[in-house]
Amino acid sequence: MRYHEDQRYLQDAFDTRRLADRLDERIVHPSIAEEDKAFIESRDMFFLATVDAKGFPNCSYKGGDPGFVRVVDPNTIVFPNYDGNGMFLSMGNIRQTHHVGMLFIDWEEPDRLRLNGEALIETESPLLAGFPAAQFLVRVHVREIFPNCGRYIHQLKLVKRSAFVPRKNAITPIPDWKRMDAYVDVLPTNDPARP
Question: How many domains, the chain?
Answer without folding.
Answer: 1
